[in-house]
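FAQ: What does the model actually see?

It sees only this:
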Amino acid sequence: MSTPMTPPSGSPAEDEHVENEIELKEVAGLSQGQIVRRRFFRHKGAILGLVMLGATTLLALSSVGVGPLPGWWQWTPYETPSVQDAGRPSLALPTWLGGTGFMLGEHPFGQDEIGRDIFARVMAGVQTSLMVMVVIGGVSAVIGILVGAASGFFRGRSDTVLMRLTDLVITVPTLVIGAVVGKIAGGVSGLVFAIAMGLILWTTLARLVRGEFLSLREREFVDAARVAGASNVRIIFKHILPNAIGTVIVSVTLLMSAAILLETALSFLGFGIQPPEISLGQLINQYQQAFATRPWLFWWPGLFIVIIALSINFIGDGLRDAFDPRQKRIPSERKMAKAMEADASAARAITSTVRPGDDVRNAGTGMGS
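And it is asked to produce this:
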């Protein structure tokens, strides 16, 4: 009886063997959905982005209220109280950060030249920017999935027509199309602007979905569904699309991050959302002249744009790593050492079961037979 061959200690092959063994033990008995959730919640960047985005959304919705529902903040975005302390922010940092002691005051983010509270206006801008981001993501997802699914599943003439339409939209710079659409729809309402922008940002998702459908339509489970008499619509939405949902979710998440930056750029240039509605890009546009004398008017909208965009990107990275089976989480040194010790113990146990004379007797038996 011979002992199993193991890679040399400390070699790359052994490290890969231990990593695979640890990963298989951790996901044993879990469904695909449970594995995805486990990978996502173990991604520190994704959890940080989720917490930051959730906290920002909760602060924006609860502070100034939503629609007829009032918020807990004392000022509205349109009130014009008297200017205090030349409009400087009343927010004070804690002593351990070098401040005089934490304090919000009446106007923590300051006031503009006519006395409007910047905190209330920034929170209203966050609400509008989040709404635009979600609507653009939803509209783009619907159009991109439908176009990509039809193109990849039916192929032939349908594929040619739909992909040439997609290429036509891609060739025109997004900022140019967005400026034209924003000038037309931005003055109507933020919702109309978001829907109009969603109608032109679906192209990347459509090409990704098409690639997934071209690959999945040749799989055995699709042939089985056809033999069972399933219609094309059922095959697309019941059998193929669930297997491509990982690519769709990741792409839509990253698209939403790009959408909020595009809305900010268009509003900053004056082609996006128009007053009396408020968005973060519009606030930067309004207060850009005051950057040298009252920079806090410029800082706060920019800070929340960065927070939202980074949060969405972190969440997208976490979703990509969770859905992609090729992404491996490197175990800690402690887990690696523990697994290697367990392998060594198993090898010693196998070796100890073989008596020293067994190989000699077996060899003699073989010679005499």
